[in-house]
Write a structure and sequence with these properties.
By secondary structure, the protein is of the alpha+beta class. It contains 25 helices and 24 strands. The structure holds ligand D41.
Length: 674
């Protein structure tokens, strides 16, 4: 039976499709969105609803069909009607000059006009459009035949499902490269790490893996991108006279094309383009592995023709490899400014991407395990753009004796304090926050901050000088500085030295929240410091509290409690605190806040979500605390109640999942006795 679709519905669906695809182009091709994500979602859902009501509206070019297909079992073979040629490579200036000479001689001209573009480091694909609608997408394969990955390519938002042209050609194959943006690559790897899965060595591998997923929903999650660089079979299409015009046409038809492309005349221009693109490479949002030079005029391309399977009229000029293999001599550990311990590979020096590398990061212990890297292995070293070189993986295992295995040290190599790794964290940290030389500058700057001890005039230049000159090692040393020590420093006159000494002296008279915050305990911000001070009253009470007792304070969960207990358990830190008290840092101590032991919420843990009509979140919290309860931020099995106001979100869902009792506003007020 043919479905009857009201004309308004048809018209609205067509309009929505046009609008959504236009916003797709603005977002993915032009990087210039006009509407917010929420507005986009609204349009999208309106269309999806219309199509659900009238399934015959669901055409192949509808944006809703990007993730529609069901998983397949394998890919069908696609024979490329016009083979996808390969590109010859040039590795140095002489190769480029030879290419230019061959073109000049073949065409019998003095100077050849070229179109230059970056070479995207991805996977070549061919997209077939019939009457302007995307009907098939295939990988390059061996150039003669590839795999049908249409459903997967439909999930790539920068690929238009319909050509933006006035008169659509009967058939047009658009060719280009599928890539993954660096930021999407990082996201994919971050998610893989979280789930304990293997990470990808580079964006190209991640893109290749994404394109070959049997379930298009998994491809969609990879967020692939596309750039067009040419065409294949065409029927009912008058090809532009030059490559540059062809790219302009493709851009108008809705495809992203390289922005940094240029017309060049002769070899010198080509080499200038190569150097410019090479210099700007690190700043690009994607990886490129070289540039491509193409004879610009189509008529001249035809005259030059091709040899074996590569055109004579084009060449790829490759950048030096950014990956190399070398021997991993040792694995050391570096302590960062925040106390993070990073395993570092000591390498047999190797030339990668233009420089010699001797050290490369191994990120963290989990990465070392996941990539299964041991001392004396032969490893792959990678340098991408301006990022720190990293060990991407093992090329060949070494002898792998027990001593070759990496273990995170139990004590900090800089200060000997205990090293801990908190649950939920990938990073191991030195706990000697106050005393560790690696963390000294950072710790002192934090200590002196306005919202901490508020030592006016103690900025980073001064801290650098004080620490590097060995004058100050711990915060307590600041209070032992005299005008004479200071006046000896660069750019420090007698007057400023006197001012600084006065500011340091003044900071001795402080408050417990400021002092606590100044200690730089991980996860203890100003608010937590204030809550801790209020709850415990004295520093000694906090120093003696167990992780469990610490969680009694408002908003202190297991992670924060663990950070505080770890910090206070470290002997070096306790000594640091004693020294500060000994040099005269002081504050007025208070009584611990008395938590109501009786009341309707006595001993109960409550989570607030959504908006209450009758009170603010802070008021609700205060009333729960006054009634003996404790308010925490996230729902867990330990939660007794979730108070759900209007527009409650994921916390409410979580409560329902865990079977936690949910109170609406009325029930909440009733329980409070209001
Ligand atoms: O960016 C690229 N990776 C790129 C690849 C490009 N910009 N242009 C290319 N042009 C061609 C010809 C000249 C043969 C049409 C290519 C490729 N081919 C190519 N990609 C993979 C194999 C060949």
């Amino acid at each position: 039976m043919v479905e009857r679709v009201p004309r308004e519905a048809q018209a609205r669906a067509a309009e929505l499709r046009r609008e959504i695809e236009r916003h797709n182009r603005l977002y993915y091709r032009d990087d210039a969105p006009e509407i917010s994500d929420a507005e986009y979602d609204r349009l999208f859902h309106e269309l999806a609803d219309l199509e659900a009501r009238h399934p015959s509206l669901r055409s192949a070019d509808s944006p809703t069909q990007r993730v529609g297909a069901a998983p397949g079992t394998q890919f069908a073979t696609v024979v490329h009607r016009v083979p996808m040629l390969s590109l010859a490579n040039a590795f140095d200036d002489a190769d480029v000059e030879a290419f230019d000479r061959r073109c000049r001689e073949g065409l019998e001209v003095e100077k050849v006009e070229y179109s230059c573009e970056p070479k995207f480091d991805g996977l070549a694909v061919s997209l077939a459009y019939e009457d302007g609608v995307l009907v098939q997408g295939a990988t390059r394969g061996d150039g003669a035949r590839g795999e049908d990955v249409t459903a997967n390519l439909r999930t790539v938002h920068s690929i238009p499902l319909r050509l933006e042209v006035r008169r659509a050609p009967k058939l047009l194959e658009v060719r280009g490269e599928v890539i993954m943006l660096r930021r999407d690559f990082e996201e994919v790897n971050r998610r893989a790490l979280e789930r304990g899965e293997r990470t990808f060595v580079n964006p190209r591998n991640a893109a290749a893996g994404g394109l070959r997923q049997l379930d298009p929903k998994l491809t969609a999650k990879r967020k692939l991108s596309f750039f067009a660089y040419g065409i294949g079979t065409a029927e009912g299409f008058e090809a532009p006279a030059t490559h540059a015009k062809l790219l302009d046409f493709l851009a108008e038809a809705g495809f992203p094309v390289a922005k940094n492309r240029r017309i060049a005349h002769g070899a010198a221009d080509l080499l200038a383009f190569y150097r410019e693109v090479g210099a700007g490479r690190a700043a690009l949002p994607y990886d490129i592995d070289g540039v491509v030079y193409k004879v610009n005029r189509s008529a001249e391309q035809e005259r030059l023709g091709f040899v074996s399977r590569a055109p004579r009229w084009a060449i790829a000029h490759k950048f030096p490899a950014e990956e190399a293999t070398t021997e991993l001599l040792d694995i050391g550990v570096q302590v960062g400014r925040t106390g993070a311990l990073t395993p570092v590979a000591r390498l047999k020096p190797v030339f990668v991407g233009g420089t010699t590398i001797e050290n490369a990061t191994l990120h963290n212990e989990d990465e070392v395990r996941r990539k299964d890297i041991w001392r004396r292995d032969t490893v792959i070293v990678r340098r991408a753009g301006d990022v720190i070189p990293e060990v991407a993986g093992v090329a060949k295992a070494g002898p792998r004796e027990p001593r070759d295995r990496f273990e995170m040290p139990a004590a900090c190599p800089e200060c000997g304090s205990a090293v801990v790794r908190l649950e939920d964290e990938a990073v191991a940290r030195c706990t000697g926050g106050l005393v560790c030389p690696a963390q000294r500058k950072q710790a002192l700057l934090h200590f002196a901050q306005r919202r901490a001890m508020d030592i006016e005039g103690l900025g980073d230049k001064l801290v650098d000088q004080l620490v590097e000159g060995g004058v100050v090692r711990t915060p307590a040393d600041l209070y032992r500085l005299g005008i004479a020590n200071l006046a000896a420093l660069e750019r420090m006159g007698g007057k400023s030295a006197a001012n600084l000494v006065a500011a340091i002296e003044k900071s001795k008279d402080t408050t417990l929240p400021r002092f606590l915050y100044a200690l730089g305990i991980r996860n203890v911000g100003e608010v937590t410091a204030r809550d801790l001070a209020r709850h415990f009253g004295t520093l000694d009470a906090i120093m003696e509290a167990s992780a469990e007792a610490l969680q009694e304070a408002p908003d202190v969960g297991p992670v924060v409690a663990e950070s505080i207990a770890t910090f206070m358990n470290e002997r070096h830190n306790r000594e640091g605190i004693e020294q500060l008290r000994a040099v005269g840092v002081h504050w007025a101590e208070g009584e611990p806040a008395r938590r109501a032991r009786a009341g309707p919420f006595a001993g109960k843990i409550v989570v607030l979500t959504g908006t209450l009509a009758g009170m603010t979140r802070d008021e609700a919290k205060e009333r729960i605390e006054a009634a003996g309860g404790k308010v925490t931020g996230s729902v867990s099995k330990k939660t007794d109640y979730v108070v759900a106001g209007a527009e409650a979100g994921s916390k409410l869902e979580r409560a329902q999942e865990l079977g936690v009792r949910v109170l609406d506003e009325e029930e909440f007020l009733k329980l409070l006795g209001a």
